[in-house]
Amino acid sequence: MKRIIDYITICSAIPRHMLSHRRIVTPQCTRRLYKKLSDLRALCGLVEILVIGVVVATGCDRHSAVRSELDRADALMEEHPDSSLRMLEAIRSDSLSGEELARHSLLISMAIDKNYIDTTVFDILQPAIDFYKKHGTPDERLQTLYYLGRIYQNRGESEKANKVFLNALELKGEVTDSMVLARTNVAIAQTFKYWLVLTEYVKYYSYAADIYRHLGREELYYDCLLSMLNGYNLLDNKERADSILMLCSEGRKDGHIESSLFRSYHLAYITHFGLSAQLDSIINLCRDNRVGSTIDLMMIANGCLEAGDTSRAAEILKDVRTSGIEYDTLKYQSILIDLYRVTGDYKNAFEECLRFFNTNDSLNLIKFRNAQIESQHHHEFQLAVISDSQFKSGIITVIIAVMFTLLFAVMILVYSLRIHKAKNHRLAMNNQMTDLEQNLIRQIAKTTEAENIRLHLERKQQELESDNMRLRMAELSSEIEHLKEINSENNHDVAQEVKEVIQNRISMLNAFLASRLSSSARHEDLYEKWTRELISDKNKFMQENRLAFQVCYPKFIDNLKNQDLDDGEIEYVCLYAIGLRGTEISSYLNSTSHLHISSAVRKKLGLGKHDTNLGNYIKKLLDESR
């Protein structure tokens, strides 16, 4: 149409003398022809104006329709993100520009994220990033920064993601979209959890919980509370964990938290803080088949392990393994490693450690393969969109072939560039996966070397403990000989009562040496029996202990008597001399007079309130008297 109009316009501008023919054209014909051409030119001008008006009106209608579609997609975003995504994909982004393109880019990024599609490329969101740097409302800038951070999270670049999220929070005084603000706080909390910065993890979940509560989003509010409960468990902050648990209990009663979900978090709280009575009741529930979750069972096994009940932990782990129900292999192996370590079975602990790393490596490999498959599917989806666009373009090309020839060539070029870019992206992903596998192999080698060093150090420690035991037994043998010499019949200076005490001590020392040198349980039982009989009578034990020190260390006893200590106080001091601490003496005497006796002894020995520990002073005094 435009070419026809241009042709007529050119013709109308031809001078009249060029239209005349010397042989057949008369002046009257020339005037008539010129008049007709003038009328035709006026008509063409009118047609041109009408065509421009139609084009402008069509463009306005099209933009109005696009805005309406974007508004509908935005309204469906929270409740029906799948429908919103289909609507947005039906809009051709190559026909948009400026604000519409930026909003379409932002909305489709939101829909992809809400449909749990983890994208790692910036192509879709890039128009929104470019436009909202200088334009748009604070809410649109906040949304753009949030979904930019989500892309960084999907790419595994947690530092960049956290920086973007923190920049988004700087807009909190200007924005009205509290939901995105709360999600930004949750995303920051998850990043800090990945970094194991638990105080910040709890803090940002607390910010998000306050926003959700203000908005009346009870389920999201209690989800944040459960995450805070988990954080306070890891921080060993029982006081804060108790307050959060009380709020979560109210949420469970009101139906905002599922009972199974609350039970899992409650169980984690019980096992972490070692509440044995509640743990026993939950174990009984499991045995009655009223609790069947393998996650709960493994939490209970972990709690039993922390409480020192290794046999029950092993029994529960066996039930998990033989239940026939799927369970978290990595969690099971980590608890089993701790069980082997606590029970001293380091060989099985090391082998289970290797299996743990192998399982973890296998899972990571599966994740990488799934990510590759997902990338391939996304690429195929893009190819399908391009193919559909080409088909529609072909129909238009058949109708207006000349007009769209150049556009078709450009689309082929764009298609080739996208294919080339996709190939480069796959190659980069393969190289990155190869680097990760090599790093993982090096990490396993380092871990194995560290484990070998640890086992070597443990063997050295056991050798030192064995040498120390042999030295101690040699000292005890020397002590026995010394007591026998004192208790000999030729020594008439020692009273018969003291000789009996010394003889009992010699028998006990012999029994102790026999129990350590022999593997027979008879010697061990004899030693345990004498020990129980001796310490059961507190007065007799303390009196015999004082007499033994009086014979073996007379200077020590004389020094105490010179400080005006009576026999009862000397007997109290002798408990410190055999190596007991103040709390152990108080527990043994089971008397409220412990503090009074201790104060009286310190006063007679000349020790002030802030002077050295009484036990250390007695040991020093004993060493000086030898």
Which keywords apply here?
mainly alpha; about 625 residues; disordered N terminus
Helix and strand run: HHHHHHHHHHHHHHHHHHHHHHHHHHH
Distance between the termini: 123 Å
Unreliable sequence segments: 1-25, 54-61
Largest sheet: none
Structural class: mainly alpha
Number of helices: 27
β-strand number: 0
Mean pLDDT: 76
Gross morphology: elongated
Backbone CA Rg: 44 Å
**Helicity level, as a percent range?**
over 70%
Strand content: under 5%
Task: Explain what this protein looks like in three dimensions.
This protein is mainly α and 626 residues long. It is 80% helix and 0% strand. It is built from 27 helices and no strands. The protein has helices at 2-12, 16-19, 27-76, 81-89, 98-114, 126-131, 138-154, 158-169, 178-194, 198-215, 218-234, 238-253, 259-273, 276-287, 294-306, 310-322, 329-342, 346-399, 405-486, 496-517, 521-536, 538-552, 554-562, 567-577, 582-589, 594-604, 614-625. Helix 3 (27-76) runs antiparallel to helix 4 (81-89).
In short:
The protein is an all-alpha fold and 626 residues long. It is built from 27 helices and no strands.
Write the layout of secondary structure elements.
Elements: H1 2-12, H2 16-19, H3 27-76, H4 81-89, H5 98-114, H6 126-131, H7 138-154, H8 158-169, H9 178-194, H10 198-215, H11 218-234, H12 238-253, H13 259-273, H14 276-287, H15 294-306, H16 310-322, H17 329-342, H18 346-399, H19 405-486, H20 496-517, H21 521-536, H22 538-552, H23 554-562, H24 567-577, H25 582-589, H26 594-604, H27 614-625
